[in-house]
Write a structure and sequence with these properties.
A hairpin with a 2-residue loop joins strand 4 and strand 5. Helix 5 (148-160) runs parallel beside helix 6 (178-194). Strands 6-7-8-3-9-10 form a six-stranded mixed sheet. A four-stranded antiparallel sheet has the order 2-1-4-5, with helices on one face. The longest helix has 17 residues, at 178-194. The protein has seven helices and ten strands. It starts with a strand and ends with a strand. Helices cover 35% and strands 27% of the residues. With 226 residues, the chain is an alpha/beta fold. It binds adenosine-5'-diphosphate.
């Protein structure tokens, strides 16, 4: 099984049958091999977030299948989907969404506790990740005490805490100034390569897209180049 993600015939319409119906995805086919990093580019509103949410099991398509690490997720119950989402898929958003009352370390430890990892092991894994992104010295700081770039680095570590095989990211550095964005994006790519992940990363930035293995464009609900 050489593919980490296989998406076939995905369609999604919001407000189906109503006057404000929006046909966002009209039959998406996309395959990501193990260890492959793919850029997802599209005009705003073209359905990037919708596709990422469906691929990450946060939303369900109207039709089509999503297969992750060889497991067809179609029609699975909430428990199996949640288990895959928790351990098999890492998600990064444009905004860090860290828990403000917890330290950087705790933010990376918590998803592992939810996955029944013992505390000492979870802390060791969290420190390893924070070290890889160059902020282990900030482990005891809360999000409000960190810069935007540092907050996003912690969010990368949190997404990878449970050792997923697949990373999905929605404009992961879109909230940062251009210089910080480039730097933090390189940190993310280093982490992705180091962990041997497959990834689908949405970005508006063509220079960043060019650093990935392949670029996929969405237009009018379809993949127009791959
Ligand atoms: P992108 O990430 O490419 O900007 P999105 O996937 O967020 O695009 O949105 C695609 C289209 O679907 C947009 O027109 C958006 O307004 C619409 N949309 C997204 N989510 C919903 C929703 N929950 N209900 C209705 N329309 C939605």
């Amino acid at each position: 099984m050489n593919n980490m993600l296989e998406i076939k015939g995905i369609t999604k319409t919001y407000n189906a049958g109503k006057p404000n119906q929006i046909e966002v995805l009209r039959g998406i086919d996309l395959t990501i091999a193990r260890g492959e990093v793919v850029a997802l580019t599209a005009p705003s509103g073209a359905g990037k977030s919708t596709l990422l949410h469906i691929a990450g099991l946060l939303d369900v398509p109207d039709a089509g299948t999503v297969t992750i690490a060889g497991q067809d997720m179609t029609g699975l119950g909430d428990r199996r989907r949640t288990a895959m989402r928790r351990a098999g898929v890492g998600f990064i958003y444009q905004f860090h969404h860290l828990l403000p009352e917890f330290t950087a370390l705790e933010n990376v430890v918590l998803p592992q506790l939810a996955n029944a990892v013992p505390v000492a092991e979870a802390e060791a894994r969290a420190m390893t990740l924070l070290d890889k992104v160059g902020i282990s010295r900030r482990a005891q700081h809360r999000p409000a005490e960190l810069s935007g770039g540092e907050q996003q680095r912690v969010a990368f570590c949190r997404a990878l805490a449970n050792g997923p095989g697949l990373l999905l990211a929605d404009e992961p550095t879109g909230n940062l100034d251009p210089e910080t964005s480039d730097l933090v994006f390189d940190v993310l790519m280093g982490l992705v390569r180091d962990e041997g992940l497959s990834a689908l990363i949405a970005t508006h930035n063509h220079e960043l897209a060019g650093k990935m293995d392949r670029v996929v464009k969405l237009n009018a609900g379809r993949v127009v180049s791959a």
